[in-house]
Specification:
By secondary structure, the protein is α/β, with parallel strands linked by helices. 40% of the residues lie in helices and 17% in strands. The chain is globular and about 60 Å long.
Length: 363
């Protein structure tokens, strides 16, 4: 089958949860013999690749403006999918889903993956939130098949949009960890193995990294440091303030990292912290768990669905409680944790998605 993918900024090595999802999933689907094309947003691409890991790559221009880029790019990508003769157009996220009725008018079969109610994110204004809600509604109404990454989202679209049929729960996945050391990088950052706490995500308000900075400032660090791995797609007042506060408090800022640098940070951290107010099913959390890190996360529904032990959770926004959890980890001996991640296996996930594509061939 010829599958064209849109709704992502692109792959490989582009920051974002949807991007990580697509980077893991579609090479596996291509390896099963499907013809897969990912349409990338040219403004995010820093390479000249036309194919990667068996996946064809097509770059299309879009304005790099957070309120318009997704919808304009997805519209252009949909026209390109029709031109390429796609058997299936796979649309990721609710913003791009605004275009799904047009895809159906063009005669395309559409799979829509709902990664979470993005209208709950603090970064969006009133008009953008309305557009995201409309994208969710149109995606649920017109897509041939809907994939959700958590039971929380499955329940939401059933109650809110009456979408019960042709809805498939397919979790985010996590690859096998790449355990490694990178002494030169650690020397550059000024950190030591086992003596730092890591937060790893985009610098956007709903991730609440400012809570983590404030909480860490309240603990007795005993030689431990706080490392924030990530950056903002669009520099704004929040990301600037976060970086200023982090620097004042001695926090180590790595910027966006992938590959050996990221693997070494995850291999040697004391614990991973995710204090966010909004998630679909956080890949970064699953990745930290794959490295056997103790984790401290907010008690939002998406994090609760991972079914961690109770002591891993703190009440959303309770900075004092977060500080107590951090102090407990710092006071304890360095240790690792074994988690059952069997349902987050990318190979199994790829099989599930291929079965959904095959069901469209039959219809």
């Amino acid at each position: 089958m010829k599958i064209v993918v849109t709704g992502t900024r692109g792959i490989p090595n582009i920051m974002g949860g949807v991007e990580t999802h697509c980077e893991e999933l579609f090479p596996r689907i291509a390896a099963k013999g499907h013809d897969v094309t990912v349409i990338r947003r040219k403004s995010y691409v820093k390479d000249s690749l036309t194919e990667w890991e068996g996946v064809k790559l097509v770059d299309i221009n879009s304005p790099k403006k957070k309120s318009f880029e997704a919808i304009i790019h997805t519209f252009r990508a949909t026209l390109k999918a029709k031109q390429l003769g796609a058997d299936v157009l796979h649309v990721h996220a609710i913003g791009p889903a605004l275009v799904i009725p047009i895809a159906k008018m063009l005669g395309l079969k559409v799979v829509f993956t709902h990664h979470g109610p993005d209208y709950d994110r603090d970064k969006w204004g009133r008009k953008a939130k309305w557009a995201l809600r409309m994208g969710e509604e149109l995606g649920c109404k017109f897509a041939d098949e809907v994939i959700v990454i958590s039971n929380v989202i499955k329940d939401l679209i059933a109650k809110k949009h009456g979408r019960w049929d042709h809805v498939h729960l397919v979790y985010n996945g996590v690859p096998e960890p790449e355990l490694c050391d990178y002494p030169e990088y650690f020397e550059e950052l000024g950190i030591e193995k086992g003596k730092y706490v890591i937060g790893m995500c985009r610098f956007v308000p709903e991730k609440n990294l400012h809570h983590l900075v404030d909480a860490f400032a309240m603990v007795k660090p005993k030689g431990c440091k706080l490392v924030l791995a990530g950056d903002a797609d669009f520099e704004d007042d929040y990301s600037r303030h976060l970086k200023e506060s982090a620097q004042k408090n001695g926090v180590v800022l790595t910027g966006f990292v992938k590959g050996r640098k990221l693997h070494s940070l995850l291999t040697n951290a004391r614990c991973y912290v995710l204090p966010s107010s909004h998630e679909g099913l956080p890949i970064a959390l699953l990745e930290a768990m794959s490295y056997h890190l103790p984790v401290i996360v907010s008690d939002i529904p998406a994090n609760l669905e991972v079914e961690l032990p109770d002591e891993c959770y703190f009440h959303l926004g309770d900075i004092n409680a977060l500080a107590r959890k951090l102090q407990k980890n710092i006071d304890a001996d360095y240790h690792q944790v074994d988690y059952d991640l069997s349902k987050y296996n990318w190979d199994h996930i790829a099989n599930q998605v291929c079965e959904i594509y095959e069901s469209l061939r039959m219809s």
